[in-house]
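On clarity, I found the account of how folds are encoded harder to follow than it need be. Since the whole study asks how a given chain folds, the encoding of that fold should be made plain. For the editor and my fellow referees, an illustration may be useful. An entry of this sort, consisting of the sequence and the corresponding backbone structure tokens, reads as follows:

:::
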Amino acid sequence: MSKICLFGASGHGKVVKDIAISTNIVVEAFIDDNPKSEFLHEIPVVTSQEIAAYKANKFVISIGNNNIRKVISKKVTNEFATLIHKTAIISPTVNIAEGTVVMPGTTINADTSIGKHVIINTAAVIEHDCTIADYVHISPNATVTGNVTIGEGSHIGAGAIIIPNITIGKWATIGAGAVIITDVPDYAVVVGNPGTIKKYNNE
């Protein structure tokens, strides 16, 4: 039976742990430098100084913040695993890179490419021929229709809808429930229906 470690003992970590369990993978430890307790769901929580004890394990970064996942991914030298919940529906022509987590009830359709350390959250739908770059977070019940491109580090809010053939730049934020009908530039924060740029994130 495979064993992994999760970097981040948080609420998100609890969900990622459940995904591992759904596929008969054992979570041997949580790694967290600001632990709230010594155990989370009866799994030991240790600091990054103790990573060497788990060097044989693959890791998944179980932290929701896209920026933090990127920083940690550059520091951790262990190999990364990919976790896909057993209830996810994924076309055999989909490509999913290392460190990515696919949560329960999601659907990812044909010829879509998912980058590294991406979060595809509960019941999200990603249609055919989409390209999702590294460190993206697709929130619960978001719908990404066909031929959509999403740049590095962008966050798609819960229940957002992106119509076909749209490009969303890097490190953009799409608000919950937003409907995106035009391309979104890098770092833009977009809310509403139709989506309107309200401000820009700092680089």
Notes: The two ends are 42 Å apart (CA to CA). Helices lie at 11-22, 66-75.
